[in-house]
Design brief:
Elements: H1 3-15, H2 18-25, H3 29-43, E1 48-51, E2 54-57, H4 59-82, E3 95-99, H5 101-110, H6 112-117, E4 123-127, H7 130-138, E5 147-153, H8 154-161, E6 166-181, H9 194-197, E7 202-205, H10 208-218, E8 226-230, H11 233-241, E9 247-250, H12 251-257, E10 264-268, E11 274-282, H13 289-305, H14 307-312
Parallel strand pairs: 3-4, 3-5, 7-8
Antiparallel strand pairs: 1-2, 5-11, 6-9, 6-10, 6-11
Helix pairs in contact: 1-2, 1-3, 1-4
Length: 316
């Protein structure tokens, strides 16, 4: 059982709405729903009664609420008690981290428990796009105190490789996948071709890195049935979860979330492009000790908690 799921459960109970709770938590409604479904399966009971867009606790949900609060408080006390030992692997003061949207809205939510265990969420997170991050790193006064977490397609990684002033250290790689319900994706299939994907009803997120990865995957094959191309995640997820459209995901997200929802399928795409997630900083001068220790803790967290994923998909 994940502490994150209990936190989500309590927020939904307080808000009385999945969509409102998702906004408060800065997570997608799809991810929130999947987490609660997994929690209900694990406990063997229904926690919410759904009436339209509103929800209320069942009797089991009311019994769980005080126990969930106690469990979350116990975890907080455990982390607080161990925080004094963090100095053995690196300082625990707040890190200023520049991050691209995938990192800021994805990893820091979906990997919350893992990151908390390594004291990696004690950050001042500044969300910026890839061009802005490159511009920041190019400034001569950036010095050793600028650390960015970036998501780069193969094309964007070539741009980094051609810039001697910037060092890129990958944490992991991921590959584009298709996600949808059994209504549009057969669970009997092992993979799907690009030609098949372009004919499916498609709703996908408007984001520069995703656009670059899609372009690398589909080249000159245009999509024939775009239902939605939007930054409205809630509406997009509604179309996907009701079987009206498929969308794009990736192998790392499938690893983190795929087992939590039996209704949604993650399907490999033949010849799909990959992307890398990692740290970027100025090559000279080197990172200061504080940021270098943070980056090393993050690498240790990924290497330990995502060991089985990295064994199949090592970072290059």
């Amino acid at each position: 059982m994940r502490i994150e799921s209990l936190t989500y459960f309590l927020e939904i109970a307080q808000a009385g709405s999945f969509s409102l709770a998702a906004r408060h938590l800065y997570v997608s409604q799809q991810g929130l729903s999947k987490s609660i479904q997994a929690l209900e399966r694990e406990l063997g009971t229904t926690l919410f009664e759904r009436t339209g867009k509103r929800v209320r606790l069942t009797e089991a949900g009311r019994d769980l609420a005080p126990l969930a609060r106690a469990c979350i408080e116990s975890q907080k006390n455990l982390l607080d008690g161990m925080r004094k030992h963090v100095g053995a692997v690196g300082p625990a003061k707040t890190v200023r981290l520049t991050a691209m949207p995938f990192v800021a809205s994805g990893m820091f939510s979906f990997m919350k428990d893992r990151l908390d265990a390594y004291d990696l969420r004690n950050v001042a997170l500044v969300e910026r796009g890839f061009p802005e991050i490159l511009a920041d790193l190019a400034r001569e006064d950036a010095g050793s105190a600028t650390l960015a977490m970036v998501v780069v397609s193969a094309t964007m990684r070539e741009t980094l490789a051609q810039n001697p002033a910037v060092t890129f250290a990958p944490l992991f790689e991921s590959r584009l996948m298709l996600m949808g319900t059994k209504r549009l994706i057969s669970p009997k299939r092992q993979r799907i071709s690009v030609d098949e994907v372009v004919r499916l009803p498609l709703a996908y997120y408007s984001e520069p890195v995703l656009e670059s990865v899609i372009a690398d995957t589909f080249a000159d094959k245009p999509f024939e049935n775009i239902i939605m191309h939007t930054s409205n995640i809630e509406m997009m997820n509604e179309y996907v979860e009701t079987g009206q459209a498929v969308t794009f995901s990736d192998t790392f997200s499938a690893y983190l979330l795929g087992s939590e929802n039996n209704e949604l399928l993650f399907m490999p795409i033949e010849g799909a492009a990959s992307f890398s997630v990692g740290f970027a900083h100025r090559a000279d001068p080197p990172l200061d000790n504080h940021l270098a220790a943070y980056a090393e803790r993050f690498r240790s967290c990924i290497g330990t908690t995502c060991k089985s994923y990295l064994a199949k998909t090592p970072a290059s």
